Amino acid sequence: MMGDGSEPGPAAEVEQHIIEEIIATALAEYKRELTICEDCEHMHPDSRKRASYSAMCMKFPRLEGMGFVSKKGWDHDPPYMRCRDINGGACPLFEERKQSIEEQS
Questions:
Q1: Of 105, 46, 31, nearest to 80 (Cα)?
Q2: What is the pLDDT of residues 13-62, one digit of tens each?
């Protein structure tokens, strides 16, 4: 009986072990399928030269009305959506990036 000061029984220990296994499996699965935009073929090449928060994904054309305010006013012309607005770590369109000739040497 819990709450009366007694130790948890074998059933509670088994239950705790099962919960820990489920959590460990879920974490392993999450880490295996984690998608990072910098490792993706679809990240716009010019984006690789700038801060990651400004990176654009070539698989997602800009949606109407998804511009931003710049010093000149409303900028409605970015050709693609920002990676930060698309990838939550499990992008279904992720494609492993091939290294360029410059990066290989």
A1: 46
A2: 878 888 888 777 766 665 556 788 888 999 999 888 888 888 899 998 87
pTM of the model: 0.53
Task: Give the separation between CA 26 and CA 31, rounded to whole angstroms.
Answer: 9
As for how many domains the chain has, the answer is 1
Give residue 36's domain range: 10-86
Residues 37/55, Cβ–Cβ less than 8 Å:
yes
The span from the CA of 8 to the CA of 17, in Å, is 13
Q: Is residue 96 part of a domain?
A: no
Q: Is residue 2 situated within a structural domain?
A: no
